[in-house]
Amino acid sequence: MAFGGVEVLKGVDIDLFPGEVHGLIGENGAGKSTLGKLIAGVHRATGGTLAINGTPRVLTSPRQAMDLGVALIHQEPLTFPDLDVAENIFVGRQPQNSAKQIDWKGMYRSADELLASLGVSLNSKAKVRGLGVADQQMIELAAALSQHAKVLILDETTASLTPKEVGELFTIIKRLKSEGCAIAFVSHRLDEVFEICDRITVLRDGEKVGERIPAQSSIPDIVRLMVGRDVAAAAARPVGPDQPVMLEVTKLSQGSVFHDVSFEVRKGEIVGMAGLVGAGRTDVACSIFGINPPTSGEVKVDGKVVQIRSPKQAMTEGLALVPEDRQHHGLLLPISIAENASLAILRSLTRGGIIQSKKIGDNAETYRAKLKIALRDVNQPVKDLSGGNQQKVVLSKWLLTQPKVLILDEPTRGIDIGAKAEVHRLMRELADSGLAILMISSDLQEVLTISDRVLVMREGQLVKSLKPGEATEESVMLAATGQVAHAS
User: Fold this and answer.
1) Nearest residue to 449 (alpha-carbon basis) of 274, 275, 214, 222
2) Average pLDDT, stretch 168-188?
3) Cys bridge to 321: 104, 307, 407, 461, which one at CB 3.0-4.6 A?
4) CA distances from 381 to 2, 203, 369, 385 (A)
5) Three-state SS across the chain?
6) Dmax of the chain from CA atoms?
């Protein structure tokens, strides 16, 4: 497969068998998502053959692929925000009654049954607008199951899920596997790949560099195949109480969404915020940043009480927010990488009301090197980048504002293990230079690895603050789910 003369897939061979989960892994830009889109008819290959059930096919559309039993759950959910959940599940193929009219009752009943089978608590009549990425992915999965897909490609479906939700998804995958479905599982979470996959194919720079059986391999072996080197993690370290408090939140509330949330983040500290999807973590971040201002409570930045009513005001006070949904809330996809990176500081890049293009390009080149963004040219559209590299562009945009407090909402969602380690090292460097960081993540291992302290939210409340040494997978999940530890 080639885009604009650049070959992104080179002679890749892969077989998907009924009753098997096949892991597809590699760094950002390795070609995983492109391969999935070729199989699902989104793109048309420039070379090679594709056979379904032994018959060579030339797929010209996702609809044709779906008619042949192939479905793709995209890394970035493709839902219609102004349609409801059921309409999204059955879009383009709504059930009809004898009068050839839409059978609304039947459609909502079927949607409820599908969602129940997935263990998802969603109102089938609720509009999709406002739902999180995890819920939208469950809607796409329900749509695929409603069409009885026999080849299912899951592209980073677990990236926004908590461990509990991942377990529920794996139960569904195992059921589909037992029913003879062939599943391609794309993920950067190698522990999940080893847990659920029967075989693993590793891509690097658009080529297949290896195939492994999990029981006969190891995570370090796979990492070396992916990146061609060993990857070390950035370690957390405690921040002394003598460091000034840069962000102080006191009894912050927003209607019925969350209430009485209080915490602080000190200079040079990384505070992780954990909890199940829907616990209110992102809502707290959006409230602090002025997207949805709080109804009560107090926020202090660098010791000063602030009344933040808009993101613009938040930026003026020294706050920055890297959002969870990069494509809708972090980027303008049609414009260039350089322009996206400079969006938050355009005023400082103007002279006499004219934007200085050279400064925009220089800034982009600086962070291209710092974050190791894989791209052809900083002037190419940001939509051409892989998901992980798009996330790096969002991160560079906010770092250019030189904030006092950086809020990161799922900063490594859809980022490969090598790039994740780079982001973690950058976070540690930023903290060591004095930046206060609040990190929201559904990746529990990430929270435990990089955080100096861990906050746990449940049902709109902050229920636990864990110091270094207290935070473990068990202690965080017990607090997040409201369970009590059993005596061993």
Assistant:
1) 274
2) 90
3) 407
4) 16, 24, 18, 8
5) CEECCEECCCCCCCCCCCCEEEEEEECCCCCHHHHHHHHCCCCCCCCCCEEECCEEECCCCHHHHHHCCEEEECCCCCCCCCCEHHHHHCCCCCCECCCCCECHHHHHHHHHHHHHHCCCCCCCCCECCCCCHHHHHHHHHHHHHHCCCCEEEEECCCCCCCHHHHHHHHHHHHHHHHCCCEEEEECCCHHHHHHHCCEEEEEECCEEEEEECHHHCCHHHHHHHHHCCCCCCCCCCCCCCCCCEEEEEEEEEECCCEEEEEEEEECCCEEEEECCCCCCHHHHHHHHCCCCCCCEEEEEECCEEECCCCHHHHHHCCEEEECCCHHHHHCCCCCEHHHHHCHHHHHHHEECCEECHHHHHHHHHHHHHHHCCCCCCCCCEHHHCCHHHHHHHHHHHHHCCCCCEEEEECCCCCCCHHHHHHHHHHHHHHHHCCCEEEEECCCHHHHHHHCCEEEEEECCEEEEEECCCCCCHHHHHHHHHCCCCCCC
6) 74
Q: Which residues fall within 8 angstroms of residue 418, CB to CB, at 6 or more apart?
A: 27, 223, 226, 227, 229, 231
CB 289 within 8 A of CB 324: no
Specify the pLDDT at position 7. Answer: 81
Strand order in the sheet with 199-204: 70-73, 151-155, 182-186, 20-26, 199-204, 207-212
Strands 207-212 and 199-204: antiparallel
Report d(CA 42, CA 276) in Å as an integer.
32
pLDDT in tens, 140-159: 888 988 888 899 999 888 87
User: pLDDT digits over 181-232, tens only?
Assistant: 999 999 878 889 999 999 999 998 889 999 999 999 988 888 788 876 555 5
Burial of 68 (0-12, 13-18, 19+ CB in 10 A): middle
d(CA 336, CA 125): 38
What distance in Å separates the CA atoms of residue 123 and residue 113, rounded to the nearest whole number? 11
Q: What is the pLDDT of residues 252-262, one digit of tens each?
A: 999 889 999 99
Most confidently modeled of 130-134, 338-342, 434-438?
Answer: 434-438
**Buried residues in 190-201 as b, exposed as e (16+ CB within 10 A):** bebbbebbbbbb
Phi and psi at 77, nearest 5°, equal -55, 135
pLDDT for 242: 79
CA distance 423 to 270: 13
Fill in the amino acid letter for 374: A
Contacts of 69 (CB under 8 A, 6+ apart): 52, 148, 149, 150, 151
Which of the four pLDDT bands, split at 50, 70 and 90, describes residue 485?
A: very low
